Structure formats: C-alpha cells, structure tokens
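Suppose a colleague, Dr. K., hands you the sequence of a protein chain of 409 amino acids and asks what its three-dimensional shape might be. Before reaching for any lab equipment, you can write down a predicted structure in token form. Begin with the sequence itself:
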Amino acid sequence: MTEDSKKKRILWILCLCEIGAMLICYNLAAVIPILRTEWSISNDQAGALLSVFQLGYVIAAIFTGWLADKYGGRLIFALSAIETGLAGLGFILFADNYQSALWWRALAGLGQGGLYIPGIRILSSWYSRQERGRIIGIFTCANVFAYAGAYYLASALSVAYSWQTGLFWTTIWAFPAALAVFFLVHEKKTISAATPLATAEKKPSFTLASKAFWLIIVGYVGHMWELYAFWGWLGAYVTYAFTSHGYDTSVALRYGGTIAAVCTAMGGISPGLGGWVSDKYGRCLSATTLMLISGCCALLFGWLADLSLWLLIIVGLVYGFFIVADSAIFKAGLTELVPAHAMGSALGVQSVLGFGITVITPRLFGMIVDNYSWGWAFSFLAIGPFLGIICMLLLRGQPEAWRMASGKR
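The predicted structure, expressed as tokens, is then:
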C-alpha cells in the first residue's frame, strides 16, 4: 500500500470512528424537551446538563493532549471512546433525576475530551501543513455529522419508543469505534512538515508568550462561545417555535429534532470547505469572513420563532452552515505556529480554553431564556464571533501570520 493510500485510509477510518464515538455528545440535547417534563427541570437546569458535559470534556482535555504526545493518539482515542460509551450506558440505566444526570453527563464528557485532539494529532503526523486545513476540516465534518445524527436518531427513537432507547442507539457505537482505531490506525513515526518552523523551534516567539499563539487561542474561544450553545439549544428552540405556532407537543418535538439535525448537518461539509478556502486564501481572512456571517445570524435567529417558521428554518440552515465553517482554521493555524513535539500539548491548551467557555455559555443561555427571551439568548451568542474577528484582524498584523497555510494571512 502506498503512503498516499495509507493516509486516506487512516483519514476515513478516523472520521467514521469519530462519528460513532461522538454520537453521544448531543443525544441528550435531542431529548431535553422530554426530560424537562418528566423530571420537572427548568431551562437553567437543562443548560447545566449541557454545561457539565463540557466541563468533563475540559478536564480531560487538560491531559489528553499531553498524553497523546507521550503515548500516541491511537491509545488515548480508544480508551476515551470506551469510557464515554460506559458513561453513556450508565446514564441510561441509572439517571432518574437532575442530580444523578449531572454526574453521568460529566463522566461522558471526560471520554469525549480524548477523541478530537488525539485524532488531529494522528492526522498531523501524516499530512503536511499545505494539506492540513482541508484534512482537519474533513475530520471536523465527522464531528458535525455525529451531532446531527444524534439529534435525528435520538429524537425520532425517543418519540417512537422512549428517551432511553434514543440514547442507547446513539451511545453503543463508541465501543466498535474504539476497537477500530486501536487495531486499524497508527501514527507516522516521524512527523513530516509538522511545522513550517521546524528548524527554528527554539525561537522565543514560538513560546507560550507569543502574541500570535494567544490571538489564535482567544479567536478559537470566541468561536466556541457561540458554537456549542447553539448546537445544544437548537432542538429545544425549534420545538418551542412549533409549539408556539399551535403544533401538538409530540409533533413539535419530532419536527424540532429533525430540523435541528438538518441545520446541524449543514455544517457537515462547511469545515472542510472552510479549511480548503483557508489553505488557498489564508487563515485570518477566511476566519474573519465566516465569523462575520455567523455573528449576524446570531443577532437575527432568536427573534424569528414568533414571526415565521419558514424564515426561521432558512436562517437556521444558513446559520448551521457558517457557525462551524471556521473550526478547522483555528486548529490548522495553531499546528503551524508550534513545534512538532509540542503539537498535542498546544492543541490541548486550545481545547481546554475553547471548551472551557462552553461550560459557561449553555448555562447562561438557559438563564437568559428563563428571564428574558430566546431572541436575547441567541443575540448573546454574537459576542463570540465578533471577539474572534478582532483577534483575527490583530493576528494578520503579526509576522507569524505569513507562515500559516500558503503564506497568506
């Protein structure tokens, strides 16, 4: 088998396994309308269930980047997939109220924190920086398809059978994913072209004190501020919109889950396209453009529930496409700013801070809905992309920006 064939094989195995292992991530979001009634929980508490999952992710991400550097991404991915699958089954079997659900979702989040970064670490060992935006974008697309699939499967199965059934069939695939990665995937011994600055790894501008390093980190934080709160609350918002227009609760739940899945799936190709565009035209310019569109959608989307369902769906589709299109740009850009031996650790720092903010925003979103409205809650999310725009504009002025992608800013 040629090296090119090996690279492609590893990419597609990782993508399929990422989908299987990450279906659990948003299966709970799909059944929140059911649990709110069954467990008598508020939007604030529902937001806490989303946030505690992200907290588990952040705690794991503190270690998984370093562990991937030390022991390899394959082992960390496999162990993490098994842990998240076990925690998902624990939720189904033992969670029967808000308090017990918090613990099981936190444990599931711990496992999720060991999937994405080790996967990027593996892919970065095989693909050069000129290809990395597109490749990491494709890998990110797998995440989005997992989120969309979770919404669609969990909501449909929950309406037809029970919420436990919906969660089970979006959890069980973590185990074959772990086995496939462990036995079928391996990292390249020597990372080729892992950084354009391989001969200058000791230069002080590429330490944690680097302004460019922190600008791309904070830009990613702005991206994450918006993204996971949007995904986590999308199904509940669309369900609310259909209910407010007179639809029966079960019908509204089915439409809410389906439309949320389609809107989320719109981002299933955009990270790959965004990564390809950034390979061609530069990381900073591409990210700025994409975040501007996303931020404008945030300011509009939440006010549409009482106006027009069709307009809400159209804007939701556009929003779902652009909100995640810049994801791979921040990851690929960071891999070009750090030495090869520290790549996993640097990606870990980025994930800890980026996902750290997702512990806060879903909870705050629910509080705003309870105290104000859906419109103000979604407008609140626009803070993130506009912060990211500022960071990318500042990064364009840094000399390191020329070293990313094809040398364009």
